[in-house]
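Sharing a chain and its predicted structure for anyone who wants a worked example. Both blocks are below, sequence first, C-alpha coordinates second.
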Amino acid sequence: MFGFSDETYIDVASGNGGNGCVSFRREKYIPKGGPDGGDGGRGGDVVFVVRENLRTLGHLKMIRMFNAEHGQNGLGARRYGKNGKDIEIHVPPGTIIKDAQTGEILKDLTGETRWVFLTGGRGGLGNWHFRTSVRQAPKFAQPGEPGVAMRIGVELSIIADIGFVGFPNAGKSSLLNNLTNARTKVAGYPFTTRIPQLGVYRQGDLDIILADIPGIIEGASKGAGMGFKFLKHISRTAGLAFLIDLSDASYETAYETLCGELRSYAPELLEKPRIVIGTKIDEPEGPEHYAKLQSMLPEISVLGLSNITGEGLEEVKHAFVNLVTMAKRTGRQQEFSPPPAIAPAEET
Protein backbone atom coordinates (compact mmCIF):
# COMPACT_ATOMS: atom_id res chain seq x y z
CA MET A 1 0.00 0.00 0.00
CA PHE A 2 2.89 2.36 0.81
CA GLY A 3 6.25 2.49 -0.93
CA PHE A 4 9.42 1.84 1.01
CA SER A 5 10.53 4.89 2.94
CA ASP A 6 13.24 5.01 5.59
CA GLU A 7 13.26 8.70 6.49
CA THR A 8 10.86 11.62 6.60
CA TYR A 9 9.97 14.78 8.48
CA ILE A 10 6.77 15.29 10.44
CA ASP A 11 5.31 18.08 12.56
CA VAL A 12 3.97 17.03 15.94
CA ALA A 13 2.20 18.97 18.70
CA SER A 14 0.85 18.02 22.10
CA GLY A 15 -2.50 19.45 23.18
CA ASN A 16 -3.07 22.65 25.13
CA GLY A 17 -4.50 22.36 28.61
CA GLY A 18 -8.02 23.66 29.08
CA ASN A 19 -8.63 26.88 31.00
CA GLY A 20 -9.99 26.85 34.51
CA CYS A 21 -13.56 28.08 34.87
CA VAL A 22 -14.81 31.19 36.70
CA SER A 23 -18.21 30.26 38.08
CA PHE A 24 -20.34 30.84 41.18
CA ARG A 25 -22.95 28.60 42.65
CA ARG A 26 -26.41 30.02 42.07
CA GLU A 27 -29.30 27.84 43.18
CA LYS A 28 -32.69 28.44 44.70
CA TYR A 29 -32.29 29.34 48.35
CA ILE A 30 -28.49 29.54 47.83
CA PRO A 31 -28.09 32.88 46.07
CA LYS A 32 -24.46 33.31 47.12
CA GLY A 33 -23.07 29.81 47.15
CA GLY A 34 -19.51 30.86 46.47
CA PRO A 35 -17.06 29.97 43.68
CA ASP A 36 -17.45 26.59 42.01
CA GLY A 37 -15.44 26.86 38.77
CA GLY A 38 -13.88 23.51 37.72
CA ASP A 39 -10.43 22.75 36.37
CA GLY A 40 -9.52 22.55 32.71
CA GLY A 41 -8.69 19.20 31.15
CA ARG A 42 -5.16 18.10 30.40
CA GLY A 43 -3.90 18.27 26.82
CA GLY A 44 -3.17 15.04 24.95
CA ASP A 45 0.35 13.63 24.59
CA VAL A 46 2.31 12.76 21.46
CA VAL A 47 3.10 9.05 21.77
CA PHE A 48 5.22 6.81 19.54
CA VAL A 49 4.06 3.20 19.40
CA VAL A 50 6.38 0.55 17.94
CA ARG A 51 4.53 -1.96 15.76
CA GLU A 52 6.27 -5.20 14.84
CA ASN A 53 4.21 -5.56 11.66
CA LEU A 54 5.52 -2.30 10.18
CA ARG A 55 8.62 -2.37 7.98
CA THR A 56 8.64 1.15 6.50
CA LEU A 57 7.84 4.78 7.25
CA GLY A 58 5.80 5.15 4.09
CA HIS A 59 2.57 5.83 6.01
CA LEU A 60 4.16 8.93 7.56
CA LYS A 61 4.65 10.35 4.07
CA MET A 62 0.88 10.53 3.71
CA ILE A 63 0.17 12.42 6.95
CA ARG A 64 2.76 15.02 7.90
CA MET A 65 1.04 16.69 10.88
CA PHE A 66 0.14 14.91 14.10
CA ASN A 67 -1.69 17.01 16.68
CA ALA A 68 -2.96 15.73 20.00
CA GLU A 69 -6.34 16.93 21.20
CA HIS A 70 -6.65 20.01 23.41
CA GLY A 71 -8.09 19.69 26.89
CA GLN A 72 -11.54 21.17 27.37
CA ASN A 73 -12.19 24.16 29.60
CA GLY A 74 -13.52 23.62 33.11
CA LEU A 75 -17.21 24.00 33.87
CA GLY A 76 -19.33 25.22 36.73
CA ALA A 77 -20.31 23.04 39.71
CA ARG A 78 -16.66 22.05 39.99
CA ARG A 79 -16.85 19.96 36.86
CA TYR A 80 -13.55 19.14 35.24
CA GLY A 81 -12.97 19.70 31.55
CA LYS A 82 -12.39 16.57 29.48
CA ASN A 83 -8.78 15.54 28.93
CA GLY A 84 -7.54 15.71 25.36
CA LYS A 85 -6.91 12.45 23.53
CA ASP A 86 -3.33 11.38 22.90
CA ILE A 87 -2.10 11.14 19.33
CA GLU A 88 -0.36 7.82 18.65
CA ILE A 89 2.22 7.59 15.87
CA HIS A 90 2.93 4.02 14.78
CA VAL A 91 6.47 3.26 13.66
CA PRO A 92 8.48 0.08 12.89
CA PRO A 93 11.18 -1.35 15.16
CA GLY A 94 14.52 0.41 14.78
CA THR A 95 13.04 3.90 14.38
CA ILE A 96 15.14 6.86 15.47
CA ILE A 97 13.69 10.27 16.35
CA LYS A 98 15.85 13.31 15.55
CA ASP A 99 15.61 17.05 15.98
CA ALA A 100 14.99 18.35 12.46
CA GLN A 101 16.97 21.53 13.10
CA THR A 102 20.12 20.15 14.71
CA GLY A 103 20.11 16.49 13.67
CA GLU A 104 20.47 15.49 17.34
CA ILE A 105 19.13 12.04 18.18
CA LEU A 106 16.27 12.49 20.63
CA LYS A 107 15.35 8.84 21.03
CA ASP A 108 16.28 5.47 19.62
CA LEU A 109 13.15 3.34 19.87
CA THR A 110 15.04 0.05 19.66
CA GLY A 111 13.66 -2.18 22.40
CA GLU A 112 10.80 0.20 23.18
CA THR A 113 7.10 -0.50 22.68
CA ARG A 114 5.63 2.86 23.67
CA TRP A 115 7.27 6.23 24.29
CA VAL A 116 5.67 9.51 25.31
CA PHE A 117 7.53 12.17 23.34
CA LEU A 118 5.66 15.41 24.07
CA THR A 119 3.47 15.82 27.13
CA GLY A 120 0.25 17.78 26.88
CA GLY A 121 -0.22 21.01 28.80
CA ARG A 122 -1.78 20.90 32.26
CA GLY A 123 -5.28 22.16 32.71
CA GLY A 124 -5.77 25.44 34.57
CA LEU A 125 -7.32 25.55 38.05
CA GLY A 126 -10.88 26.80 38.42
CA ASN A 127 -11.70 29.76 40.66
CA TRP A 128 -12.93 27.60 43.54
CA HIS A 129 -9.24 26.76 44.26
CA PHE A 130 -8.52 30.43 44.98
CA ARG A 131 -11.18 31.09 47.64
CA THR A 132 -9.87 32.24 51.00
CA SER A 133 -11.34 33.74 54.14
CA VAL A 134 -10.56 37.23 52.87
CA ARG A 135 -11.23 36.52 49.17
CA GLN A 136 -14.49 34.67 49.11
CA ALA A 137 -15.51 35.48 45.53
CA PRO A 138 -12.39 35.21 43.29
CA LYS A 139 -13.25 36.29 39.78
CA PHE A 140 -10.28 34.73 38.10
CA ALA A 141 -9.05 31.26 37.18
CA GLN A 142 -5.82 29.79 35.92
CA PRO A 143 -5.28 29.44 32.15
CA GLY A 144 -4.23 26.07 30.77
CA GLU A 145 -0.63 25.44 29.88
CA PRO A 146 0.16 25.37 26.15
CA GLY A 147 1.30 22.20 24.46
CA VAL A 148 4.60 21.80 22.65
CA ALA A 149 4.99 21.85 18.86
CA MET A 150 8.06 20.54 17.09
CA ARG A 151 9.33 19.41 13.69
CA ILE A 152 11.23 16.15 13.89
CA GLY A 153 13.05 13.77 11.60
CA VAL A 154 11.96 10.15 11.73
CA GLU A 155 14.54 7.68 10.46
CA LEU A 156 14.42 3.91 10.15
CA SER A 157 17.45 1.74 10.72
CA ILE A 158 16.42 -1.86 10.08
CA ILE A 159 17.36 -4.29 12.81
CA ALA A 160 18.85 -7.48 11.41
CA ASP A 161 21.30 -10.14 12.58
CA ILE A 162 23.26 -10.53 9.35
CA GLY A 163 23.54 -8.02 6.53
CA PHE A 164 24.37 -9.11 2.96
CA VAL A 165 27.03 -6.99 1.24
CA GLY A 166 27.95 -7.42 -2.38
CA PHE A 167 27.97 -6.09 -5.91
CA PRO A 168 24.79 -6.23 -8.00
CA ASN A 169 23.98 -9.76 -9.25
CA ALA A 170 26.17 -11.40 -6.60
CA GLY A 171 23.30 -13.66 -5.53
CA LYS A 172 22.13 -11.88 -2.37
CA SER A 173 18.43 -12.02 -3.23
CA SER A 174 18.66 -15.66 -4.32
CA LEU A 175 20.28 -16.60 -1.01
CA LEU A 176 17.63 -14.73 0.94
CA ASN A 177 14.90 -16.55 -1.00
CA ASN A 178 16.58 -19.93 -0.43
CA LEU A 179 16.86 -19.46 3.34
CA THR A 180 13.63 -17.63 4.15
CA ASN A 181 10.06 -17.09 3.03
CA ALA A 182 11.08 -13.85 1.35
CA ARG A 183 10.20 -13.64 -2.31
CA THR A 184 12.47 -10.92 -3.60
CA LYS A 185 12.85 -10.27 -7.29
CA VAL A 186 15.65 -12.18 -8.99
CA ALA A 187 16.76 -11.43 -12.55
CA GLY A 188 19.85 -11.47 -14.74
CA TYR A 189 20.48 -7.74 -14.63
CA PRO A 190 21.86 -5.40 -11.96
CA PHE A 191 19.86 -3.62 -9.25
CA THR A 192 16.87 -5.94 -9.24
CA THR A 193 16.81 -5.24 -5.49
CA ARG A 194 16.03 -1.54 -5.14
CA ILE A 195 15.03 -1.44 -1.49
CA PRO A 196 16.22 -3.40 1.58
CA GLN A 197 14.59 -6.79 1.97
CA LEU A 198 14.25 -8.77 5.20
CA GLY A 199 13.77 -12.47 5.80
CA VAL A 200 13.81 -14.73 8.85
CA TYR A 201 15.81 -17.95 8.79
CA ARG A 202 14.65 -20.33 11.53
CA GLN A 203 17.01 -22.93 12.96
CA GLY A 204 15.39 -24.73 15.89
CA ASP A 205 14.53 -22.10 18.49
CA LEU A 206 16.82 -19.51 16.88
CA ASP A 207 15.42 -16.89 14.53
CA ILE A 208 18.02 -15.12 12.40
CA ILE A 209 16.95 -11.94 10.61
CA LEU A 210 18.73 -11.50 7.30
CA ALA A 211 18.90 -8.18 5.44
CA ASP A 212 19.48 -7.99 1.69
CA ILE A 213 20.80 -4.50 0.93
CA PRO A 214 20.75 -3.14 -2.65
CA GLY A 215 24.05 -3.80 -4.40
CA ILE A 216 27.07 -1.60 -3.85
CA ILE A 217 29.26 -0.64 -6.80
CA GLU A 218 32.74 0.80 -6.90
CA GLY A 219 32.54 4.53 -6.33
CA ALA A 220 29.46 4.32 -4.13
CA SER A 221 31.20 6.56 -1.59
CA LYS A 222 31.22 9.25 -4.29
CA GLY A 223 27.56 8.79 -5.14
CA ALA A 224 27.80 6.18 -7.88
CA GLY A 225 24.85 3.82 -8.24
CA MET A 226 22.64 4.02 -5.19
CA GLY A 227 25.50 5.42 -3.16
CA PHE A 228 25.16 4.74 0.56
CA LYS A 229 21.43 5.34 0.72
CA PHE A 230 20.66 2.00 2.36
CA LEU A 231 23.93 1.09 4.09
CA LYS A 232 22.72 2.45 7.42
CA HIS A 233 20.51 -0.64 7.58
CA ILE A 234 23.51 -2.86 8.30
CA SER A 235 24.80 -0.64 11.12
CA ARG A 236 23.04 -2.74 13.79
CA THR A 237 23.77 -6.20 12.50
CA ALA A 238 25.65 -8.84 14.48
CA GLY A 239 27.75 -9.64 11.44
CA LEU A 240 28.20 -9.23 7.70
CA ALA A 241 28.16 -11.71 4.84
CA PHE A 242 30.19 -10.59 1.82
CA LEU A 243 28.84 -12.25 -1.33
CA ILE A 244 31.28 -12.45 -4.25
CA ASP A 245 30.36 -13.65 -7.71
CA LEU A 246 32.98 -16.29 -8.66
CA SER A 247 32.01 -16.02 -12.33
CA ASP A 248 32.79 -12.31 -12.47
CA ALA A 249 36.14 -11.16 -13.80
CA SER A 250 36.64 -8.86 -10.79
CA TYR A 251 36.17 -11.59 -8.17
CA GLU A 252 39.79 -11.26 -6.97
CA THR A 253 39.43 -7.59 -6.08
CA ALA A 254 35.76 -7.60 -5.09
CA TYR A 255 36.32 -8.15 -1.36
CA GLU A 256 38.86 -5.33 -0.99
CA THR A 257 36.69 -3.00 -3.07
CA LEU A 258 33.65 -3.68 -0.89
CA CYS A 259 35.70 -3.16 2.27
CA GLY A 260 37.01 0.10 0.89
CA GLU A 261 33.52 1.39 0.17
CA LEU A 262 32.31 0.41 3.66
CA ARG A 263 35.37 2.06 5.17
CA SER A 264 34.51 5.29 3.38
CA TYR A 265 31.00 5.16 4.82
CA ALA A 266 31.60 4.06 8.41
CA PRO A 267 34.92 2.40 9.35
CA GLU A 268 33.31 0.80 12.41
CA LEU A 269 31.37 -1.54 10.16
CA LEU A 270 34.59 -3.41 9.39
CA GLU A 271 34.93 -4.30 13.08
CA LYS A 272 31.94 -6.61 12.78
CA PRO A 273 32.41 -10.38 12.44
CA ARG A 274 32.15 -11.42 8.81
CA ILE A 275 32.21 -14.32 6.44
CA VAL A 276 32.83 -14.41 2.70
CA ILE A 277 30.59 -16.44 0.39
CA GLY A 278 31.75 -17.18 -3.14
CA THR A 279 28.57 -17.57 -5.17
CA LYS A 280 27.92 -19.34 -8.51
CA ILE A 281 30.41 -22.07 -7.69
CA ASP A 282 28.50 -24.23 -10.16
CA GLU A 283 29.87 -22.18 -13.06
CA PRO A 284 32.74 -23.84 -15.02
CA GLU A 285 35.40 -21.59 -13.50
CA GLY A 286 33.72 -21.56 -10.06
CA PRO A 287 35.77 -24.23 -8.21
CA GLU A 288 39.09 -22.81 -9.41
CA HIS A 289 38.16 -19.25 -8.48
CA TYR A 290 36.80 -20.44 -5.12
CA ALA A 291 40.09 -22.12 -4.24
CA LYS A 292 42.02 -18.98 -5.20
CA LEU A 293 39.70 -16.78 -3.13
CA GLN A 294 40.30 -19.02 -0.11
CA SER A 295 44.06 -18.71 -0.53
CA MET A 296 43.78 -14.92 -0.82
CA LEU A 297 41.78 -14.59 2.42
CA PRO A 298 43.30 -17.12 4.82
CA GLU A 299 42.23 -15.19 7.92
CA ILE A 300 38.51 -15.17 6.98
CA SER A 301 36.01 -17.99 6.65
CA VAL A 302 35.36 -18.36 2.89
CA LEU A 303 32.49 -20.59 1.78
CA GLY A 304 31.39 -21.72 -1.66
CA LEU A 305 27.74 -21.60 -2.69
CA SER A 306 25.46 -22.33 -5.60
CA ASN A 307 21.98 -20.90 -5.23
CA ILE A 308 20.90 -23.02 -8.21
CA THR A 309 22.07 -26.50 -7.13
CA GLY A 310 22.14 -25.89 -3.37
CA GLU A 311 25.83 -26.81 -3.12
CA GLY A 312 27.31 -25.28 0.04
CA LEU A 313 23.92 -24.10 1.36
CA GLU A 314 24.11 -26.21 4.53
CA GLU A 315 27.58 -24.85 5.32
CA VAL A 316 26.26 -21.30 4.90
CA LYS A 317 23.38 -22.05 7.29
CA HIS A 318 25.76 -23.38 9.92
CA ALA A 319 28.05 -20.37 9.48
CA PHE A 320 25.15 -17.95 10.01
CA VAL A 321 24.02 -19.78 13.16
CA ASN A 322 27.57 -19.82 14.57
CA LEU A 323 28.13 -16.16 13.76
CA VAL A 324 24.92 -14.99 15.44
CA THR A 325 25.28 -17.34 18.42
CA MET A 326 28.84 -16.16 19.04
CA ALA A 327 27.88 -12.50 18.68
CA LYS A 328 25.02 -12.80 21.17
CA ARG A 329 27.12 -14.81 23.61
CA THR A 330 30.00 -12.35 23.60
CA GLY A 331 27.91 -9.19 23.32
CA ARG A 332 29.45 -8.37 19.95
CA GLN A 333 26.14 -7.25 18.47
CA GLN A 334 27.32 -3.67 18.37
CA GLU A 335 25.39 -0.64 17.30
CA PHE A 336 27.24 2.02 15.37
CA SER A 337 26.07 5.48 14.45
CA PRO A 338 26.40 5.92 10.70
CA PRO A 339 26.64 9.40 9.16
CA PRO A 340 23.30 11.19 9.63
CA ALA A 341 20.91 10.49 6.78
CA ILE A 342 18.58 13.31 7.77
CA ALA A 343 20.28 16.65 7.42
CA PRO A 344 19.35 19.47 9.82
CA ALA A 345 17.29 21.36 7.28
CA GLU A 346 13.72 22.10 6.42
CA GLU A 347 11.99 19.71 4.03
CA THR A 348 9.92 21.15 1.26
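Comments welcome. Residues 185-194, 219-227, 332-348 have pLDDT under 50 and may be disordered.
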